[in-house]
């Protein structure tokens, strides 16, 4: 098993650069960038080593043979510097195509995710929304009829009977009756004030009744305002 924690040698980096050149599509962009950084670091170290080797070869305190050996070593190190620089240039040449391919893959992934999410929500709306509208409009119609019934009873209460709260107020926890001097609070947003787009008629509402969009545009809060308010509440 290879030692993945071992620091790669210069020979390792040159071999990896050669492999990337031969099959660039098989190298992930992140791996290619990391390889370039490693080669750049190795190149800086090799240049420093080569300079030291050249200086050592000029030492007047060594004999001719030792000086020749050090010169040969310095030349080998200079050649290694050239090879690392060449490898770094090749990695740089590969990056534009790999970056373009990476970006294209990311765009495809974002598109696929968005399409899947849209398909899911579209199916849910198509299946559920008509039933929700039918249930809610039926409930709201019953609520209005019941409010009238409650108001009539409260206007002529039997002895020792407390006023009845309207169903919306009782269910949602606010005072909503007119008997005994308790005013109905018109600042409260009631269920009967909700807006329900019609399931199939794009210019009409299923609730409130009789609404036609192009005749009563001022009765709808603009959709950008609704989206902005949702995002502000979600992030707040």
Q: Could you characterize the architecture of this molecule?
A:
With 236 residues, this protein is mainly alpha-helical. It is 65% helix and 2% strand. A hairpin with a 7-residue loop joins β1 and β2. It is rod-shaped.
Q: In sequence order, what are the helices and strands, one letter per element?
A: HHHHEEH
**What structural class do helix, strand and pairing data support?**
mainly alpha
What's the Cα radius of gyration?
39 Å
Report how far the terminal alpha carbons are from each other: 51 Å
- Specify the helix fraction band: 55-70%
- Can you summarize the main beta sheet? 2 strands, antiparallel
How many strand segments? 2
Q: Spans with pLDDT under 50 lasting ≥5 residues?
A: none
- Principal-axis shape equals rod-shaped
How big a fraction of the residues is strand?
Answer: under 5%
Mean pLDDT: 82
What is the chains' assembly state?
A: single chain
**Reading side by side through the largest sheet, how are the strands ordered?**
1-2
Count of DSSP H/I helices: 5
Structure summary:
The protein has helices spanning 10-22, 29-57, 64-155, 167-172, 223-235; strands spanning 196-197, 205-207.
Explain the layout of strands and helices.
Layout: H1 10-22, H2 29-57, H3 64-155, H4 167-172, E1 196-197, E2 205-207, H5 223-235
Antiparallel strand pairs: 1-2
Tag the structure with descriptive keywords.
236 residues; mainly alpha; two-stranded antiparallel ribbon; 5 helices; 2 strands; 65% helix
